[in-house]
Specification:
The chain is built from five helices and three strands, in the order βαβαβααα. The protein is α/β, with parallel strands linked by helices. Strands 1-2-3 form a three-stranded parallel beta sheet.
């Protein structure tokens, strides 16, 4: 059975340059897998700073779904000021702004990952 330490979670903005950099990241994961950890695998791709009103966001999201299939997490992390502010206060967004959309999305993400990894 795979353990969580072998699972890679890739956070990604749904923007063109992020999509371009993804192939280089995939090559890096493959290199590490070949050289050090054959169990390493991409558990999921997480769409961050997600704004479904933006057509580029929707287009990139669709391409990610076609390429990654079930590895594309259902949860998305929205563009949210509270998420951006939290690190400067030295606390996670779930403590900094517990009721914000970003905080709620991170809790949904945690539940999705727990289900996927059967922790």
């Amino acid at each position: 059975a795979m353990v969580a330490a072998d699972a890679v979670l890739i956070p990604m903005q749904c923007e063109y340059y992020a999509l371009e950099g993804l192939s280089a990241l995939m090559e890096t994961v493959d290199s590490i897998k070949d050289a050090y950890n054959p169990q390493l695998h991409i558990e999921g791709l997480l769409r961050t700073m997600y704004d479904p009103r933006n057509s580029l966001t929707r287009d990139v999201s669709k391409q990610l779904g076609q390429y990654f299939g079930d590895s594309l997490l259902k949860t998305t992390i929205p563009r949210n000021v509270r998420v951006a502010e939290a690190p400067s206060h030295g606390v996670p967004v779930t403590k900094y702004a517990r009721l914000s959309r970003g905080s709620q999305a991170h809790r949904v993400l945690a539940k999705e990952l727990i289900r996927r990894l059967a922790l």
